[in-house]
Design a protein that fits this description.
0% strand, mainly alpha
């Protein structure tokens, strides 16, 4: 009997659906992270180029508003991604009696932590623009809030590094004892899916890096180029269909 004529084993179709939901949650988390970095970076770049306080103030407000919305959005989307990934791993262990492959998890977690760090740095830079817009009282209040966020972020970063190192060592030990999940023929796996998504995510990452480089004054792109990079980063993430 041909493989395509065979009935899927019990649980295989459910597992394929869970994997699809996990990929969707991952996409949402990455789009949120991309927007949380590119929007404040672009607003601050344009605020630096503003020629008057009236031009700078809306950009400063936009940067602060995006930062305030980014923190809960990142937390929620990444929590959903993690919860769905854990559900997939638990179901794989039930079906195949082996642990799933975890080789890319330490790198992805470190990448997300880096995204959080960049987002916090951009948010903590917002008070300067309100001060330059002559809103000194608000700038002082935001400065104190930024100091508290910086301290909390530092504590969270140290705690993450300790947990990440311990978890990475545990995954390495488990990898030596197990060959990983064999998967199933009804879910072709990442190698059999179209690679357009990887190309688009690469484009988004390049655009984000270019904007961050401009925000760090490593290069001085024209204003039109800044808008183009912002559009490329958001479009590459949004249209990606994994």
């Amino acid at each position: 009997m041909l493989l395509t004529e065979m009935a899927p084993p019990p649980g295989a179709q459910e597992l394929a659906g869970l994997r699809a939901r996990t990929r969707s949650a991952r996409r949402a988390a990455l789009v949120a992270l991309c927007a949380s970095i590119t929007l404040p970076a672009t607003a601050q770049l344009l605020a630096d180029r503003a020629t008057s306080r009236e031009q700078m103030l809306p950009l400063a407000v936009l940067s602060l508003a995006v930062f305030a919305a980014a923190l809960p959005t990142l937390a929620i989307t990444q929590y959903v991604w993690g919860a769905r990934a854990r559900l997939v791993h638990r179901r794989e262990r039930e079906l195949y009696a082996v642990a799933p492959s975890e080789r890319a998890r330490p790198l992805s977690r470190m990448g997300l932590a880096g995204g959080w760090a960049v987002t916090l740095l951009l948010g903590c830079a917002a008070p300067r623009f309100f001060r330059e817009a002559a809103l000194y009282g608000l700038a002082d209040a935001l400065g104190r809030a930024a100091e508290a966020i910086a301290v909390a972020g530092l504590v969270a970063g140290v705690s993450f590094l300790i947990w990440w190192a311990r978890d990475a060592l545990g995954m390495l030990a488990r990898a030596r004892r197990s060959g990983g999940s064999p998967g199933d023929p009804w879910d072709p796996g990442p190698g059999a899916r179209p690679r357009a998504g990887a190309v688009l995510w690469t484009g988004a990452a390049v655009a984000v890096a270019a904007l961050l480089g401009a925000r760090a004054h490593l290069w001085e792109p024209a204003t039109g180029v800044i808008y183009g990079l912002l559009t490329a980063a958001l479009v590459c993430g949004v249209v990606t269909d994994e």
